[in-house]
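Changelog-linked ticket: 1,3-dihydroxyacetonephosphate example.
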Amino acid sequence: MRDFLVAGNWKMNGYAAGNTALVAGIAAGVPHSARVKVLLCPPFPYLASVVAQLQGSNVAVGAQTVSEHQSGAFTGEVAPAMLRDVGCEYVIVGHSERRALYGETSAAVAGKFKAALGAGLKPILCVGETLEEREAGSTESVVDEQLGAVIDTVGIAAFASAVVAYEPVWAIGTGKTASPEQAQEVHRHIRALLAGHDADIAESTQILYGGSMKGENAAGLLGMPDIDGGLIGGASLKAVDFLAIANAAAQG
Ligand code: 13P
């Protein structure tokens, strides 16, 4: 049985004063379930202070992106080893906002995934189709290409230390959630794709859903056999909203 991972992607939101209250609220209300792990992904400047505040708790910290390079003349970039150095355990790679707004190709995402693993971080690989792609019937081929580029680069065994997040672009920040059945269909497809390479890895890899997940729809999504948690944007910015999802996981 796979455990649940409930991850908050704060995106470019929050300042020090509010973050302290948010983190304290989340840490105080995290469900006492060995099957649910909670993860917070704040912006770079706050990683170290959120890690410090969460010392002694069982809430993990991750970053929202990472460089594919180790060090050197890459102004503005952050190396995977730096994220480890400040106490990150996870890093999101290939979020659709990075792909769409910053031109990250699947090859670049694969490079980031590889570099993250090399530094001992667990990458959370985001995949997902736009509305246009869904309507054209190409959801599976889009996901296949995004996932395939990473498998080709790092090999299937690498997924023993990684997480996949299915985030349909049309559901991100729109209030339009994929129905549990729509999400399950793609999650099942992703797991089958992994199983085509290695059945054991496919069985143990956590596949998260992301896209307008909130307390009201979490139980339905998390009740699906191939949905192992959530990657949450908007609803991760308020402790009560985020904890509602974590609690739904604890009851799932
Ligand atoms: P929302 O939960 O705000 O739709 O964002 C989802 C997301 O992009 C998480 O990475």
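Closing comment: Example verified and attached. The chain is about 45% helix and 15% strand. The first strand starts at residue 4 and ends at 9.
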